[in-house]
Amino acid sequence: MNPVRKQRLIVVMIIVVASSAVAALVGYAVGNMGDYFYSVSQVVKGEAPRERSIRAGGCVIPGSIKNATDKLETTFEITDGVENMTVTFDGILPDLFGEGEAAVVTGKLDDNNVLVATKVLAKHDETYTPKEVEDSVQNPNNHSKACEGMTYDS
């Protein structure tokens, strides 16, 4: 084989191997960084992983918001109309966060099946409910305003 052709072949092989390795590493990193959405019922049934960050959403149960007196920690419960789940968040909550409103939380489950949230998102106006929350909330009568008119079992 001609030395010039051999050198070109080696360069092409190095480029192919290097680009394949980079693509594999990027794919692995993206797959591990995604926060998958789970409904409250799925989390309560144990379908959500404990070792990785997840997203869950539902409606904040009226009367469940409890603020700590000595720090920013807030504990509240969310529901999908079937199951309830406790969430703790240590930080400043969004202005529109409140009882009976839709919320999406991101965090990890602890040993007591409490979601320790790192991020809390609240709906931003009166007519919008996050798609994940709307799909997970069991309210066939008024699906566009998923949290209104729900019955809450405490």
Please give a structural write-up.
- With 154 residues, the protein is of the alpha+beta class.
- The chain folds into 2 domains: 33 residues; 110 residues, Nucleic acid-binding proteins (OB fold (Dihydrolipoamide Acetyltransferase, E2P)).
- It is 27% helix and 28% strand.
- It has 3 helices and 7 strands; from the N terminus they run αβαββββββα.
- Strands 2-4-5-7-6 form a 5-stranded mixed β-barrel.
- α2 links the parallel β1 and β2.
- It starts with a helix and ends in an 18-residue tail after the last helix.
- 25% of the residues are buried.
- About 5% of the residues have low confidence.
Write a brief caption for the model.
Helix content is 27%, strand content 28%.
Q: What's the gyration radius in Å?
A: 23 Å
Fourth-tier CATH superfamily name of the largest domain: Nucleic acid-binding proteins
Based on secondary structure, the structural category is alpha+beta
**CATH topology value of the largest domain:** OB fold (Dihydrolipoamide Acetyltransferase, E2P)
Cα(first) to Cα(last) distance is 79 Å
Portion of residues in helices? 25-40%
Overall geometric form = elongated
Mean pLDDT: 82
Largest sheet: 5 strands, mixed, barrel
Number of strands: 7
Write out the strand line-up for the largest beta sheet, numbering strands in chain order.
2-4-5-7-6
Are there runs of 5+ residues with pLDDT below 50, and where? 139-145
Q: Helical stretch count? A: 3
H/E series: HEHEEEEEEH
